[in-house]
Queue: 2 jobs
Job 1
Amino acid sequence: METDKIDLLRRQYGEFGISDKVYAFGEEILASLRERFMRIDEVAEYNQLKVIRAMQEAGVSEACLLGTTGYGYNDLGRDTLEKVYAALFHTEDALVRPQITCGTHALALALMSNLRPGDELLSPVGKPYDTLEEVIGIRPSRGSLREYGITYRQVDLLSDGAFDYEGIRAAINDRTKLVTIQRSKGYQTRPTLSVGRIGELIRFVKGIKPDLICMVDNCYGEFVETIEPTDVGADMAVGSLIKNPGGGLAPIGGYIAGRKDCVENAAYRLTSPGLGKEVGASLGILSAFYEGLFLAPTVTASALKGAIFAANIYEKLGFPVIPNGTEERHDIIQAVTFGSPEGVIEFCRGIQAAASVDSFVTPEPWDMPGYDAQVIMAAGAFVSGSSIELSADGPIKPPYAVYFQGGLTFPHAKLGILKTLQNLADKKIVYIE
Ligand SMILES: *Cc1c(COP(=O)(O)O)cnc(C)c1O
């Protein structure tokens, strides 16, 4: 950029309280990431074409953007969108609905509809996402799989993050019906699984028992790579529309893309036996689902760049970061360990201060239901709770790590990260020379 433009930009950051020093530090880090960002743009370009192609193949028309009411019979937009998802994930069918309220609901639906009393569920990648503990019945809950006589087995990853193939072989038995594989590390410290590794795992378990249903919790992973788990043998990929595939525009929703019988089971459970996919009015929501999916590849790329920018900044300042600054990414979550409550709090306040919505709010740690320590959260989102939008949270307990994700545009993610840095510098938690 020309010098006067750079000065203009710096002054604009100054309006947000970003000092010249913090700005310069950020620019230095960014300069080292150019090539990396180019590769992310290439993946986004590939995925953008993939989305457009899927929409063309499914014959998306202006009429698809309208909605139905009541029963929702013959909802052209809904049925076509499900064809788009099926084309995108290279699956026989898909269920994409606003009646699926969130990611946990989509996962619960896929599990509960494809398992029967006496079956066993296996997680070969360790403990699943927190909210699934009650779905499965690891933590007792009303209506859990366990209450319906569906048992659960888990094989943890080995200490180096590798699959425990021997343990997995020993865990598979006559009753094992469904294998659940979580792609993203979520809020754990294990590595996120690449689609390639998921494929290896699926090949292994199907080699032992070919009729196993393999389900992948795809949350936070969509569009990070050029292939999805359903390209490497998964029978179902499941996720939330207020994460990557909603592109920030979907105000609610979840999806299940997969084998026809698996999706049909889920549809019969979501609505009713006999009715399945035939009912479920889309109301006025479809244009947001279509346009969000259209934007999702570049939105995911922006979030990824933000995560990598944050990783490199805080790694350079000496804080442990997962993933580290250089490693390959398979989801959009970034963890930074500050080692002190103040670090977590100031980081979250920086993210909040960069928001378009609720920027004037000061996040405070609070006793959130279901957690054993206070939690602080930053989210100034257009869609409440959306974590494809710039957001951060962290439990106020050792090792005092913050989890950061999202950013609909990279400039917003950059502003948020510079604000965190400014806050931490002002509080003398970090020193920028
Ligand atoms: C977010 C998430 C979920 C649950 O999704 P919600 O929409 O919050 O219910 C499940 N698994 C993983 C890995 C997630 O990241």
Job 2
Amino acid sequence: MILCSDPKKQYLVYRKPIREAIQRVLDSGWYILGNEVKSFEAEFAKYIGVKEAVGVGSGTEALHLALVACGIGKGDEVITVAHTAVATVAAIELTGATPVFVDIEPEFYTIDPKKIQAAITERTKAIIPVHMYGQSAEMGAILEIAKANKFKVIEDCAQAHGALYKGKRVGSLGEMGCFSFYPTKNLGAIGDGGMVVTNNPDLAKQVRLLREYGWAERYVSHVSGWNSRLDEIQAAVLRVKLKHLNKDNAKRVRLAKKYTKELKDLPFKLPRQREGCVPVHHLYVARTEDRNALLSFVKERKVGALIHYPVPIHQQPAYTKFKRSDLPETEKAAKEILSLPMYPELSESDFKKIIKAIKEFFQG
Ligand SMILES: *Cc1c(COP(=O)(O)O)cnc(C)c1O
């Protein structure tokens, strides 16, 4: 089976430095919040182009911590999309706040700025745009609306490490940026991990307190926090991979171009690039009304295509309380989208097999 993403292949490419990094941590005897996390935070902040980066337990936790650091909690509303990983909404709920869903732009799969105004109430405290599939949301318009209405922008960058919006890396545009290092992400650990980035030193300080029981010094809590730390082994491995992120993202971009070239004449809507943006193609998502038939057809030919995501959040069993009928583009996308295998190490022969299977479906 050709997998949709294949983190083991990346491990094999960087096997030697990854093993050395892990060994270095084992030998150090320091396994939580040490030099590796500190160095990785500095290196990642520099890469994104922000003052501060704070390593945390996961992408969900990055969002949760960022929201709490911004003072968001019970009684507040946070605007976001229902076309996202459930983590975005789980993080909002963890704070006690209520997620308010806005529909997506169908060609980019990111929040539709034209529809944000109608979702704003006096309880709106923040917006979480999700840079879906590796491409930035329309940040210019989003930042303007947020400024005019005095609420915070917290970017969900879990699928977009290194993506650019008008020359700036996503994560550096809003008040805070939140990253996941889940193994299949563009920058992936060998377990869970996440990062909060910001140019605001006070917010960074708050996240540092919250991620470790509110400690400003050992054993003395200054705020009510909890435990959500990035561990040393994950940080050491991520330091190895960060050095190669631009090169690996460039490989994804090249692969996306190859897909587009091969598939452009089929009745298959291919990903579009937003003007002024450089995407990093976390996924290559195309759409067709024949999606379900195409998915089973290519699966029989050992192409592990997937759907990201098959059920919009407001239609999932856990979230029936958020049921609503004004998200037509979100619901339509969920029925038509298909993610084709996308990772830097995808071989030419596998690529040919994928193209062959898709062409056979459409052209017989
Ligand atoms: C992966 C992902 C997350 C959550 O990250 P975890 O590290 O798995 O908690 C959040 N938002 C989006 C859009 C994601 O793709």
